[in-house]
Amino acid sequence: MEDWAEVHRLSEREGLKKAAIARRLGMSRNTVARLLELDEPPRYARAARGSQLDPFADAIAAMLDTDPKVPATVIRERLRPLGYRGGITILKDHLANVRPGFLAARTFQRTSYRPGEIGQVDWWHTGWPIPVGRGLAKEAFGLVTTLPWSGAHAVVFTLGRTVGDLRPALAGCLERLAGVPEALVFDNDASIVASRERGRARLHPEISGLLGALRTKAIVLRPRRPTSKGHAERTIGYLETSFGPLRTFDSLADLQDQHDAWRAEVAFGRRLRRTGTTVAGGWAVERGHLGTLPDPLPDTDLHLEARAVKGWVRVLSADYSVPPAYAGRHIGIRVTPTVVHLSSEGRAIATHQRSFVPADVVLDPAHGRAGRLAREARDRLRDREPELPEVDLTRYDAIWEVSP
Question: Structure pTM?
Answer without folding.
Answer: 0.64
